[in-house]
Design goal:
The structure holds two protein chains of two kinds.
Chain A lengths: L3 E2 L4 E5 L4 E7 L4 E9 L6 E7 L4 E4 L2 E6 L4 E6 L8 E9 L2 E6 L3 E6 L1
Parallel strand pairs in A: 2-11
Antiparallel strand pairs in A: 1-3, 3-8, 4-5, 4-9, 6-7, 7-8, 9-10, 9-11
Chain B lengths: L4 E3 L2 E4 L5 E6 L6 E8 L3 E9 L2 E4 L8 E7 L2 E6 L8 E8 L8 E2 L3 E5 L1
Parallel strand pairs in B: 2-11
Antiparallel strand pairs in B: 1-3, 3-8, 4-5, 4-9, 5-6, 7-8, 9-10, 9-11
């Protein structure tokens, strides 16, 4: 049973436009959420995180939004750049455990 | 710092053989995690250690899988005997502690079992 779901396996966006990547979770005990970015043949790298006490966190072109009632988070990238083309994983942890539960990833392609 | 180091980067082996994957965490990091990535299930946590002690191995799929961390700078993940369904990319990650949420991943080992 997937506790963290990324229902869109892929997304294509034009350079300069907004990319929106979505993630849903089922466990209400999750209290910390992260996004990781992965390029081919490399390990995932941390991008941005958000605690459940917030509903938004911003870092440069990247903003994560958290809707606790809907158990939904999203990553916005504005403006999108070709170098943003990668696989993006959302992850969640909480409930007294430090384990991350990862989604299956969304492959973003930013078209020049 | 060189980051998390994993070896080998690629491993091709025949079914039934023993496979050992190696990881050197970032110096000073107290927590180490082993993950497996497949297309169907994404990134799955197999086991994690804190201060060299296994904390949670509930993600280890079968008794064929075992992991050790004999000291703070080295960990192994062993599969014996290996099966074709074990083919995946295996990642090691480390963090400064369990309370530090950012994990730093190694480049992964791509395992192919024929």
């Amino acid at each position: 049973d997937q506790q963290v779901k990324q229902n869109s396996p892929s997304l294509s966006v034009q350079e300069g436009r907004i990319s929106i990547l979505n993630c849903d979770y089922t466990n209400s005990m999750f209290d910390y959420f992260l996004w990781y970015k992965k390029y081919p043949a490399e390990g995932p790298t941390f991008l941005i995180s958000i605690s459940s006490i917030k509903d938004k966190n911003e870092d440069g072109r990247f903003t994560v939004f958290l809707n606790k009632s809907a158990k939904h988070l999203s990553l916005h990238i504005v403006p999108s750049q070709p170098g943003d083309s990668a696989v993006y994983f959302c992850a969640a942890s909480g409930g007294g455990t430090y384990k991350y539960i990862f989604g299956t990833g969304t492959r973003l392609k930013v078209l020049a | 710092d060189a980051g998390v180091i994993q070896s080998p980067r690629h491993e091709v082996t025949e079914m039934g053989q023993e496979v050992t994957l190696r990881c050197k965490p970032i110096s000073g990091h107290n927590s180490l995690f082993w993950y497996r990535q497949t297309m169907m299930r994404g990134l799955e946590l197999l086991i994690y250690f804190n201060n060299n002690v296994p904390i949670d191995d509930s993600g280890m799929p079968e008794d064929r899988f075992s992991a050790k961390m004999p000291n703070a700078s080295f960990s192994t993940l062993k599969i014996q005997p290996s099966e074709p369904r074990d083919s995946a990319v295996y990642f090691c990650a480390s963090s400064a502690g369990l309370s530090s949420y950012e994990q730093y991943f190694g480049p992964g080992t791509r395992l192919t079992v024929t």
